[in-house]
Amino acid sequence: MRRKLSDSSDDELNFTNGTGRSDPLLYTKADGYADLDKQGSIFGDENPYQKAGIFSRWLFNWVTPLVRFGYKEQIKLEHLSALPDKYDTAYQENKLAVYWDKYKHNKTGHPLIKAIFMAYKGEFFYAFLLSFISSLPEIAIPFVIQRFLDFIDDPNEGVWSGILLAFLYVALSFLSRVIMEQGTFFQMQLGSKCSAGLIALIYDKALKISSSTNKKFTQGELVNFIQVDAKKIIMFAWRLPGLSKLPIILIYCIIMCFIYFSYTFYSGCIFIVCTIAVNYVLAIFTARRQAKVLTAKDSRMRLITETINSIKIIKLNSWIERFTKQIKKLRDTEIWMLKLRFSLTLLNLLAIFLLPSFLILTVFSVAIRSGIRFRASTAFAALQVLNLLRDPTRWLPFFIGVMMEFGVSMKRIQDFLQGEEINHKMLEYDKNMAPDQAILINGANFSWGGEKIDDNEEKDKEKEKELKKIQKEAHKEIRENERKKSEDLEQNSPKRYMINDEEESKENLSDSSSPSEDETLSTSSSGKKKEMLVKDIVTLKNIGLDIKKGEFVCIIGEIGSGKSSLINAILSDLIYVSDETVSDLSENVVDDKVIEEIFDRSRHEGIIKASGSLSYVQQIPWIQNKTIRDNILFESEMDEDRYNRTVETCQLAKDFEQLDGGDLTEIGEKGINLSGGQKARVSLARAVYAQKDIILMDDPISALDAGTKAKIFDQVFDKELQGKTRILVTHAVDFLDRVDRIIIMDHCKIKYTGTYEELQGNEVIQHIIETLKKVSKKEEEEEVAEIQEIELQRKTSSEGSDSNKNKFDSDELDGPSQDDNKKTSYLSEKSSKITSDEFEEKVSVDWNVYFKYFCSNGTWIALFSGTLLIVGYAWCGIQTNRYIGRWIEDIEEEGSFSKYLWTIIAYSIGFGLSISAAFVILMLSVLRSSNNLHRNMVKKTLMAPINLYFDKTPTGKLLNRYSKDINKMDADMPFLVTFVIECLSWVGATIFITALISPWSLISIPFVMISGAFLIRYYIRSFREMTRIESVTNSPILSNFGETITGATTIRCFKNQKRFIQTNYKLVDDNLNSFFWVNSLNIWFSIRLQYISSIMMIVSLGFCIGFKYSSDIETVGTLLIYLLMLQANVLWFFRIASEMEGAMVSYDRCDQILKIPQEAFNTHPLPPSNWPARGKIVFDNICLRYRPETELVLRNLSFEIEPGQKVGVIGRTGAGKSTVCLALCRIIECESGSILIDGVDIKNIDLAALRKKITIIPQDPILFEGSLKFNLDPEENCDQATILRLVSKAKLQELWDSGKEIALNGENLSSGEKQLICICRAILRKSKIILMDEATANIDIKTEEIIQKLIVEEFKESTVITIAHRLNTILNSDKVLILEKGELVHREIDDFREYFA
């Protein structure tokens, strides 16, 4: 059974206050939850649906207060009531999980679908029952119509009979609508609850996987699972119960038709079978095409997610154009797949609209030719039955298509949920261990797993070849354009690096019908991919570990030796591979079957034994989008003394003083507004505050300057954590003499272990340590001497001069000391936000939004042509029914059979072809609009400034736009636009024909239109706002999901899964609640429309009764049928119009991205082609701030760097070192001052060109999914020999030869390997100016020496600016710049090394 997450203990997160709403104190980030209880729900504490009476429930009167409130004021999330009982996500997951746990081991069939049906079998039965009951009034309506026509035809029957029949008809129509809408509401809620349960299962699963178990699904795909696939069940649940009434209606109609048409209806039965068969086949093909659409969507979302997550490195390297093209190519592929899918949908629509018309024609023509004669009332009743028969023939294939699409989506989710999980039992907390033991591993092997082999790999290759054929022409055109662009650049033409709007628009139009060649980011591997054996995927071999309680253990080794893997193995992130498995499968080629067998054999318990609680510090700091305080506490209880002590020892006190909100400063996603050192110390503080028994630290001090690093060692590792078991992976070998034991990793094995004294006696060990340490011990002493000397110089300078320009506070380099910080409490009272509040955005869908949307379709001609064709379609449909009535009237006339038969055939063909042609035109137009919108969104997104947009915008918000909102544009808009115009055309044509027959019958139309317009105006504000809220509440789900995937190991280690699962429950509940009210508003509106429709029908039928003695039955019968059609189409129009309004909210949300701030691309001329020729850099009084509301980061910074100089930049974390690099690349524009490169002010040249001329190696190594060759040379500017030479020098030859594909974010590489690749990538760019932003922090000293020699060789004529924490990194520098709070405090040092002598 599933655990009950609703139960909470005192030390767990309490998610509800007394009102049942979420406690705002739990959400300090700007996500819209902080104001939840300011106004409160307009309904009080209880959901109004639960306390509503039976009539209020069925007529949805309980929704009226929300509509009334929304008409006057803007609805916000806090105005909504709590969810009804047993609607919450936790309940849905537990309900679904019971059956999923039962069926999930079935590898064949559809166990997930089976689990859904079993979990909700009672609800599905009730939905089927409601659908069945709603069909009974529909069946009775044709009888009432025939009886009413008999009343009109019988002059002797009294008026009261007609009045009774009229009211009976209206009552049956109203009853059918109310039952049907009640069923719709229940079905939509059922679907949304299933969807919430699925999302919770997906989230739960994401917490149980690691890089070793998940080789198939990327974050972009998981986003699609949540945003697209899980939502398919809502449509499925809505449509499925309708199947229960279709067979009933079908059987009833067939029986009635045999009564009306006798044996001649056998022809109709044959026609019905053929119609259903054709539509069924088309539905199957459509569903298969849908699977390919989803695959294309996954590829696009994967790349967009990767691009957004790597936006900084993309901008720094000026790869925006390349990534824009890659996204466009994947988008073109997706659009192409959509067009293929819509082409099948078109055939389906043709069958849906054309075949029922031919059914009526076939049945009547065969009956008339067979000599059957009809009374007028019988003929009109038969016509009504045949119209009723259209629904089964139309919608049964559609339902089949929905079911198949649902099956495809559930299979995708099922594959993920059935994926392997980490073996959490591998780590056993054993209380029976020896009293002095903390961690014990006895000779175990571990693996990161092998790559999954796609069973359909060969098929995919064939499809790829076909696709490349289709794309070939467009690819030629792109290459030709690039060649011309290159020629223009050589001639110094004013053409820009970025695609300008006009060119891109033309390119888009030229290739919109087929995508360009798939030059995806996953370019071909560096060579033939090496066949991998089982023995090759064993990462750690024969690991034996016995760590004592309270022991301080240091793990060292070269890059890729397995240090981080050992930490991950202790945390159960790796797969255990027994000696028996290695022996049995060693020479087996890795494939799916072998991987599955390895997993089956790996389910051992207690491979790793631990005797206490664990905490973990990741190598790449994991920071949540919350306040610093929240990140440190990590939901632990506040202990102020311990908290203040943690802040001091982790050297965060000075940072809190500099930040506006102190420890209540909100941290942007992934710690975007913190420096690398600050992120590392916040991550470390989380583990320190937790006070666990065992602390696993994966090189957390590499990003720190030497002084801060020394204080961390003294105050944290030696003092604060004294008595704890500490395991530290590090390259800081100068501290090895201070640890209890050293473990040396070599080639993924523990080569040596012992104390510092023990290892010193071994010549081999001494060589390894000396190689790693080299001069580091001496450098540490020299660094201390340098700091003391500079401190003495600062004091002397301050005594002799009032100027503070050259002052240098050693604490700014080394961190705060107890003496400097008299403050004893670091709890701030003032908060500081950075992320924008999406809940505060206002959406106003006025006529301008519609105008902008239809203008973006490319041309009004398409819309005008489609409208004309739909008008023709409606006219042909009206005429078909009209001529059938006249045929019956003139049935005895000679020659009438041929005359009317061919006329009706012509109108029927025109009917089908018109709607098909209109759909093609409108579909292409709407898809062009969607494609243009997506293209512009990508362009605007990638050109947005990091500091003014990406730092403030949650990733989930962007992904929501690119997934759900764009999907609405792609999938829903083509149908909505078509249906709106279709309804208007039908209404117009029906009114026209009705006016010709009997103008007086239209007396109720003005009332209907005015009432409908007023109702829409009264309702639409609430619906629009609720639709917006429903979309907005998706963003936090995605943001939280992304954070969870990144920090899953930390979450598991701290045993915080429950709290994160509950957070996900809360976020999904908010979305579920908003959907509940969107659905309720829809039904409320539909029932009110039925009120208007009922009044209209009473008036119309009243006129028919009143003119009984002055009109013939043919006129009244025709009039009655058109009035029924008019009623249905008016209702459908208002319903579709409201759906269109909701879709336009999605469009407006996407359109908002087009209004975000932009960097200054294409605003200045290109520099000369040989610029910069020398590489001289001048900073002249530079002032810079990250955002207008923040403090200056650089203050009047001035310095000069001569051509070819190697300059080091040092200073305490947060002093502005990295900002110097960002200013040079114009990632952040300067507020004042100027930066000159070879005498050219960089703000006066093209931004893309500037960034192409500068190479930066950032703090955080960023890699892309693809081959090693692509990651080394993304722009394909270097030949193979040059790359191989560099690969060999960087000791990446083994990785190159393996042909190993680099995973997303480089997850299958060590941090050191990732940094090596980034450094090699920079070398291959051969720029005149090189910026190294603490780029060697995670590289051991031996490897760093190799890199430094390589840099000296390759960049001997380049200007190099190095930001470093280790002195050996800048020992060869020509000068050093020391920064403090954005100011240069010591400058023009001719020989930096003299200060360390």
UniProtKB/TrEMBL annotation:
InterPro entries on file: AAA+_ATPase, ABC1_TM_dom, ABC1_TM_sf, ABC_transporter-like_ATP-bd, ABC_transporter-like_CS, ABC_transporter_C-like, ABCC_6TM_D1, ABCC_6TM_D2
The chain positions of domain ABC transmembrane type-1 read 127-405, 866-1142
Describe its membrane topology: Multi-pass membrane protein
UniProt-listed Pfam families: ABC_membrane, ABC_tran
What ranges does the record list as Basic and acidic residues composition bias? 458-488, 791-810
Residue ranges of region Disordered?
A: 452-527, 788-826
Q: Keywords assigned by UniProt?
A: ATP-binding, Membrane, Nucleotide-binding, Repeat, Transmembrane, Transmembrane helix, Transport
What Gene Ontology cellular component terms go with this record?
A: membrane
- Give the matching SUPFAM superfamilies: ABC transporter transmembrane region (SSF90123), P-loop containing nucleoside triphosphate hydrolases (SSF52540)
Q: Which Gene3D superfamilies match?
A: ABC transporter type 1, transmembrane domain, P-loop containing nucleotide triphosphate hydrolases
**Gene Ontology MF terms in the entry:** ABC-type transporter activity; ATP binding; ATP hydrolysis activity
Residue ranges occupied by any ABC transporter domain in the UniProt entry: 521-772, 1177-1397
Q: Where in the cell is it found?
A: Membrane
Q: What stretches pass through the bilayer?
A: 124-146, 158-180, 242-263, 269-287, 346-372, 900-927, 973-997, 1003-1020, 1089-1109, 1115-1134
Which intervals carry biased composition (Polar residues)? Answer: 510-526
PROSITE patterns according to UniProt: ABC_TM1F, ABC_TRANSPORTER_1, ABC_TRANSPORTER_2
**What family is it from?**
Belongs to the ABC transporter superfamily. ABCC family. Conjugate transporter (TC 3.A.1.208) subfamily.
Could you identify this protein by its name?
ABC transporter C family member 5
Q: Which organism is it from?
A: Euplotes crassus
